[in-house]
Write a structure and sequence with these properties.
Layout: E1 2-7, H1 16-30, E2 35-38, H2 48-55, E3 59-66, E4 72-81, H3 87-93, E5 103-108, H4 109-113, H5 131-142, E6 147-151, H6 162-165, E7 170-173, E8 193-196, E9 204-207, H7 220-224, H8 235-253, H9 267-279, E10 282-284, H10 286-293, H11 296-302, E11 305-314, H12 323-332, E12 337-345, E13 352-356, H13 364-369, H14 371-382
Parallel strand pairs: 1-2, 1-11, 5-6, 6-9, 9-10, 11-12, 12-13
Antiparallel strand pairs: 3-4, 4-5, 7-8
């Protein structure tokens, strides 16, 4: 019996590799003869760089960078030989011709500028910076990366990526020409001019499944601002300043303001927009890229049972990305699927077995703290 273990992270509780390892340990105890294929998933957020780097036998590079509220933090990015990346993923990357020994850098914004790096009371998009992400991009370029793949999930920021651009050759000035650094949203009313241009950088590809434009009711601030600490009373002010700075950046880089309306421009507080306008970065479908990179179709076809899971599995999951997409594809191949999640708000169907790992009535902080034990107990019950 061959089992594919393809967990995503349980947000604020378990990484995807940890969830896969817990389930695998339980299965080895219950079914020692079964063959296990561990395939942690990544959606562009926490774990993106490590999972893709290890899957392609690359190297993780550690750097100290500026964290989302200015304090130093330890972050990492991967360097992967281009010829280790599956052909389907290379096609999606759509890179210019590169030498045989070329390496691709894999950066996750969450590592340097992530919301999870901040306590709840420190989350404030007016003061959250993507400087560290810009520093990782620059470090990867300095190491000779032929291209950069950036995952932008889990960000703490809503700054259009301007603080990252300040690390990549751009400067921001008030009406008297005085530099403003870093160009945090709190300082935007003082910014009257943008100068400079991007340092020599390799092509940048942004893995992104978000479809939000930069502004408006589906824009970055409206949809994601509240979880990053934006007060409802501040939304209109941030929206107006975002529009002004976006137009200023487009004018400086001679880009069309239509970039504001591109599907995905609002990803990660607008860093997708900023990098497209300033560096020519391009957006890629994140889950499709990860699926190709991890060779999921082949691994699904070889499995007899598929086990997946995440923090929350609801009615929309089977129409979405990550574990829901894995489950839907496995069901289409008539593979039995078991889903383990902290919260299950979806109905089962033939071939699909849903397991809520959290005991009813458990307060959220306790559920997050005890998720490893709860996942282990739930898997053991399912295979007893």
């Amino acid at each position: 019996m061959r089992v594919l273990l393809a967990f995503d992270k349980f947000k604020d509780s378990l990484t995807a590799p940890a969830a896969c390892a817990i389930a695998a340990d339980c299965l080895r105890t219950r079914q020692p003869t079964w063959e296990l294929d561990l395939c942690p998933l990544a959606d562009g957020g926490e774990g993106f760089a490590e999972i893709l780097t290890r899957a392609a036998d690359g190297q993780l590079i550690v750097r100290t960078v500026t964290g989302p509220r200015g304090a130093p933090t330890t972050a990492h990015f991967g360097l992967v030989p281009l010829n280790h990346i599956p052909a389907a993923a290379r096609t999606l990357l759509d890179l210019p011709a590169a030498p045989a020994d070329a390496r691709i850098a894999i950066i996750e914004m969450a590592s340097a500028s992530g919301l999870a790096l901040l306590s709840t009371d420190a989350r404030d998009p007016w003061h959250a910076s993507a400087q560290g992400t810009g520093q990782l991009i620059r470090a990867a370029a300095d190491l000779g990366a032929a291209a950069i793949l950036l995952g932008v999930g889990g960000s703490a920021t809503n700054d259009l990526g301007l603080t990252a651009l300040a690390e990549l050759g751009f400067s921001f000035h008030d009406g008297a020409g005085v530099p403003i650094h870093p160009p945090l949203p709190a300082t935007w009313p003082r910014i009257a001019a943008i100068r400079g241009s991007a340092l020599p950088l390799p092509p940048i590809r942004i893995a992104c499944d978000v479809t939000n434009p930069l502004l408006g009711p589906r824009g970055a601030a409206a949809v994601y601002g509240p979880q990053k600490g934006l007060r409802a009373t501040d939304h209109a002010r941030l929206e107006a300043e975002s529009a002004r700075l976006a137009h200023l950046l487009c004018a400086h880089t001679r880009q069309s303001i239509s970039l504001l309306d591109v599907s995905g421009a609002g990803a990660a507080g607008g860093i997708a927009f900023g990098l497209m306008a300033a560096t020519g970065a391009r957006l890629l479908p994140g889950f499709d890229l990860v699926s190709s990179w991890l060779d999921l179709e082949k691994r699904l076809a070889a499995a007899d049972i598929v086990i997946t899971g995440e923090g929350r599995f609801d009615a929309s999951s089977l129409e979405g990305k990550g574990p829901g997409a894995i489950a839907a594809r496995a069901l289409a191949l008539t593979k039995p699927v078991l889903v383990f999640a902290g919260a299950v708000l979806a109905a089962s169907r033939p071939g699909l077995s849903l397991h809520a790992i959290t005991p009813p009535g458990t307060p959220l902080p306790e559920a997050l703290r005890t998720a490893p034990q709860n996942l282990a107990a739930s898997v053991q019950r399912a295979f007893s």
